[in-house]
Design goal:
Layout lengths: L15 E7 L9 E2 L4 E2 L2 H16 L2 E8 L3 E8 L1 H6 L2 H9 L6 H7 L6 H17 L3 H20 L11 E5 L2 H12 L1 H4 L13 H10 L27 H15 L13 H6 L3 H9 L6 E3 L1 H7 L11 E2 L2
Parallel strand pairs: 6-7, 7-8
Antiparallel strand pairs: 1-5, 1-6, 2-3, 4-5
Helix pairs in contact: 1-6, 3-5, 7-10, 7-12
Length: about 325
């Protein structure tokens, strides 16, 4: 049986989630079909462009992503505080960037005279849109529906494009967050289609490195790195960018050790900061898709009531 989404995603449990969507067809999402000699590589650009487009509108931040031949990964952050700070008109503007305006909202924007009941209806609609702007389910829906529609149109067919609903995993602490992000960014290297993070096409780590080379503060439409201290730190990921890039490179070299392509070894302060031994870290990064909860045993135990769950299942980080 599938698990209710309310038991998978809860802002009270954690704002961070690792999500995966897989293509259901034999014809690839973005890869090369040897049988028909058809390339679908251009669809990677569709997914990346749409992902960043939605991120620029929603109060859901993209921490990491990797677009593969028949699936894609994203690590998302629910920015509920940002959604609450938006004015009613800002909520409307954001939602209408991706949707058509109902007639009642059009009248509201034109400052036409509205009855008390119509005013109340407008506020109800805005409240609903505000909640959707920080909903991972709506984020993934708008991404997957758009890609499925474009792919069906290109393939001149109808029917399901994705394997049902997307899979999600709660990332309960900093260890789980760093592990999931590294796992996602290393997908092309593990699959043997890239040798280094900077050559891993359609990944967040490549986008971050590219922006770094341009001396940009952060990569466009990606959740920035803020540092290690949670006290009075700016909004962003609780790591330093340079440490994270070193972490990805070190982890990739270990996973690929003995293969023709590999990443050189470096020292990684983030491992010491998280208090993890290298063998434990590698075990986490190769089994990240196990279970629906990721975190230390205490983190998982503490969050069970918030997700209406009783069993402590998932990937436990020592």
């Amino acid at each position: 049986m599938t698990t209710a989404r309310s038991q998978l995603i809860s802002i009270e449990a954690t704002p961070y989630y690792h999500c995966v969507s897989r293509c259901v067809r034999r014809s690839f999402l973005c890869g090369y079909d040897e049988l028909t000699q058809t390339s679908y590589e251009h669809r990677r650009g569709w997914v990346e462009k749409r992902l960043k487009r939605i991120a620029s509108v929603f109060c859901v931040d993209v921490c990491a992503y990797a677009i593969m031949s028949n699936h894609y990964h994203v690590v998302l952050h629910i920015n509920k505080d940002q959604a609450h700070r938006l004015s009613n008109h800002e909520v409307i503007k954001r939602w209408l960037t991706l949707h058509r305006a109902p007639a009642l909202i059009q009248r509201f924007l034109k400052h036409e005279a509205l009855s008390e009941a119509e005013q109340s209806a407008c506020l109800t609609i805005i409240k609903t849109w505000r909640e959707r702007l920080c909903s991972i389910s709506w984020f993934m829906r708008l991404l997957n529906q758009y890609i499925a529609s474009k792919a069906n149109q290109e393939d001149d067919c109808t029917g399901h494009f994705w394997e049902g609903r997307f899979k999600s995993q709660a990332l309960l602490d900093d260890n789980a967050l760093a592990a999931a992000m590294a796992y996602v960014d290393l997908n092309p290297i593990r699959a043997g289609i890239a040798e280094t993070p900077e050559t891993s096409a359609y990944t967040s780590v490549k986008a971050r490195i590219k922006s770094l080379q341009k001396n940009e503060t952060t990569a466009p439409n990606l959740f920035p790195f803020a540092g290690t201290s949670r006290n009075n730190m700016p909004e962003g990921l609780p790591f330093h960018l340079f440490d994270y890039i070193e972490l990805v490179e070190w982890t990739g070299r270990q996973i690929r050790e003995g293969k023709h392509h590999h990443i050189r070894s470096t020292q990684h302060p983030i491992l010491e900061r998280l208090g993890l031994h290298s063998d434990v870290w590698l075990n986490i990064c190769t089994k990240i898709e196990t279970g629906i909860l990721i975190g230390t045993a205490s983190s998982i135990q503490a969050v069970l009531p918030k997700l209406n769950r009783q069993r402590r299942t998932g990937l436990q980080i020592p």
